[in-house]
Each structure stands twice: as structure tokens, then as C-alpha cells.
Amino acid sequence: MTPKPPAGHFNILYFASAGSYTSKNVEAFPAPLPLRKLFAMLEERYNGIRKSVLDHSLVTINLNYVDVPADNAEAGPDEVMIQEGDEVAIIPPVSSG
Amino acid sequence: MSAQDGVSRLQDPAEPEAQESFLTEDGCYVALTHAPLNVQSIMDRVRSPQAGAIVLFAGTTRDSFADKSVSKLVYSAYVPRALRTMLDIATEIRAKHNLKSIAMIHRLGEVPVGEESIMIAVSAPHRGPAWRAGEEALEACKAKVEVWKWEEFAEEGGGGGAWRANRDGAVGERVA
């Protein structure tokens, strides 16, 4: 089972190529974070991950798929925020079967 | 409609790798397991006196990808998300083809070459819908279920490995 994130943090789960790129299965980051900043934050920590992994991947928050807005999207009252305790996952193209 | 979920222990209860995680609802059973798959048990899950046909698909692990020789395959999953996706697929296909039952199970961890990695069984009053439903269920699984296959290549110099992607049929990101 995935450990709970520390207080004030959320978890990111890295599957398949995301796990290979980061050498981690799970990592905690400070919450809250606007969803539109997620990829830029990861690119800052893992140089090149955007082009290699994130651009081909889907994202879930608490098991539900979400659309990640462009970096330059306007901050607004409706924007999705990643909250404390959330479980975010990077979902690369699947290869079941 | 009430969904049940849970973890049933197979074989040695002290061995967490032997766990099977499942969801079940209205004639649908979906599961992920680290244990070898069993043809008889998945067929028995869909068996019914009202069915005139059971169609079973067994996907087995191949020893090659394109021209590369594969020495080892390891499957990983986002278990709770993958089970939900499998149940969504099962529910939709069962309704569309008026199936009696559908069961789908995917194996995780290392799967030796030549063994079953996925099994799908469907039962229906007549064989036509059962054939079609079985194929559709498999294609939907391969497109959507959050399971990933790591292939390790048997090549000179170690070979390395790669995450496979079903979407484009291409070899995934190469990791030395």
C-alpha cells in the first residue's frame, strides 16, 4: 500500500516509464498546488521528464482522470487545485494483456 | 446494484504476493493477482444453466517483440484504478451483448514466457454474442486497463529492457 503523505503534502505515484525516469514509485510534494503547475514542477525536478514521459501520459487525482491545463492557463476561481492528502498518479500509455 | 470489493487470499496467507484483488457486481468479476491463472476457476465463475456458450480467451506471454528476443516479462498495475476500469469494461460489454456473466483476470509480477497473463471468460445463451463480447472485452482491456508490461531483452551486452505501450505497438522508452 502507498504510504500517506506527510501533513500539508500530497503524493504523486509514478507508474512504468514515470517510475523509471524518477527512480521512485511515490513522492510527496507540498499542497495545495494548482493542477496547471504540476508538469512544470516535475520538469524542474526531473529535467526532460516532460518530453520523455509527461507529454504522453494521463493524470488522475484520487483515481479520477483529469485534464491538465496548459501552463499559461489563467488562474481562476474554477481551477483545479491539488489538495493536502490527494493521490495524484502519472499514467503512461498502458500495456495490459 | 451493489458492488463488492475485497482481497481474497490464495495459497499461503503469509505471502502477500499471493493476494488476489477483485471487484464484483451483477454478473461481472474482475481481478488482479500475482498467482498463476487457472482456466477452470475462471470458467466456473461464468458457468450457468442459462448459458449455451462459454468463450474463453487466454493471452500468453511471447518470447519476442519485433525482432528482439524477450527473456523476462514483468507486469505492474495501479491496482485500484485498473480494477475500476476493468469493471467498467465488463459492465458495459455484459449489457451490450446480453451476457449471462463475464470474468476478467490479469496476472501481475513476473510472468514466465509462455504462461497466461490475462484471461477473459464470458457466458451467453448463444455463441455469437459470446464470441463478439470476448474479443471486444480484450481489445478494451488492452486499450484502457492501467497495467504496464516491462520486457527485458536477451541480447548481447545485457540487452536492457523497455516499457511496452499498446497504443502505438511500438517499443516504449528504452532504459539501459
UniProtKB/TrEMBL annotation, chain A:
Q: Which UniProt keywords apply?
A: Cytoplasm, Molybdenum cofactor biosynthesis, Nucleotide-binding, Phosphoprotein, Ribonucleoprotein, Ribosomal protein
HAMAP family from the xrefs? Answer: MOCS2A (MF_03051)
Q: What is this protein called?
A: Molybdopterin synthase sulfur carrier subunit
Q: Which GO terms describe its molecular function?
A: molybdopterin synthase activity; nucleotide binding
Species of the source: Chaetomium thermophilum (strain DSM 1495 / CBS 144.50 / IMI 039719)
InterPro entries with a match to the protein in the record: Beta-grasp_dom_sf, MOCS2A, MOCS2A_euk, Mopterin_synth/thiamin_S_b, ThiS/MoaD-like
Modified positions (Glycyl adenylate) are 97
Major place of localization?
A: cytoplasm
Q: How does it assemble?
A: Heterotetramer; composed of 2 small (MOCS2A) and 2 large (MOCS2B) subunits.
Function of the molecule: Acts as a sulfur carrier required for molybdopterin biosynthesis. Component of the molybdopterin synthase complex that catalyzes the conversion of precursor Z into molybdopterin by mediating the incorporation of 2 sulfur atoms into precursor Z to generate a dithiolene group. In the complex, serves as sulfur donor by being thiocarboxylated (-COSH) at its C-terminus by UBA4. After interaction with MOCS2B, the sulfur is then transferred to precursor Z to form molybdopterin.
Q: Does the keyword Ribosomal protein apply?
A: yes
Automatic annotation (TrEMBL), chain B:
Q: Which domain of life is it from?
A: Eukaryota
**Catalyses which reaction?**
2 [molybdopterin-synthase sulfur-carrier protein]-C-terminal-Gly-aminoethanethioate + cyclic pyranopterin phosphate + H2O = molybdopterin + 2 [molybdopterin-synthase sulfur-carrier protein]-C-terminal Gly-Gly + 2 H(+)
Gene from which the chain derives? cnxH
**Recorded metabolic or biological pathway in which this protein acts:** Cofactor biosynthesis; molybdopterin biosynthesis
Asked if the Swiss-Prot or TrEMBL record annotates the protein with the keyword Ribosomal protein, the reply is no
Q: Which family does it belong to?
A: Belongs to the MoaE family. MOCS2B subfamily.
**Might you report a single GO cellular component term?**
molybdopterin synthase complex
Q: Where is it localised? A: Cytoplasm
User: What is the protein's name according to its record?
Assistant: Molybdopterin synthase catalytic subunit
Q: Which UniProt keywords apply?
A: Cytoplasm, Molybdenum cofactor biosynthesis, Transferase
State which Enzyme Commission number(s) the record gives.
Answer: 2.8.1.12
Enzyme class comes to transferase
Q: Which GO terms describe its biological process?
A: Mo-molybdopterin cofactor biosynthetic process
Q: In which organism is this protein found? A: Chaetomium thermophilum (strain DSM 1495 / CBS 144.50 / IMI 039719)
Question: Could you tell me what this protein does?
Answer: Catalytic subunit of the molybdopterin synthase complex, a complex that catalyzes the conversion of precursor Z into molybdopterin. Acts by mediating the incorporation of 2 sulfur atoms from thiocarboxylated MOCS2A into precursor Z to generate a dithiolene group.
Q: Which GO terms describe its molecular function?
A: molybdopterin synthase activity
Enumerate the residues binding substrate: 126-127, 142, 149-151
Pfam families hit by this protein = MoaE
**What is annotated about its quaternary structure and interactions?**
Heterotetramer; composed of 2 small (MOCS2A) and 2 large (MOCS2B) subunits.
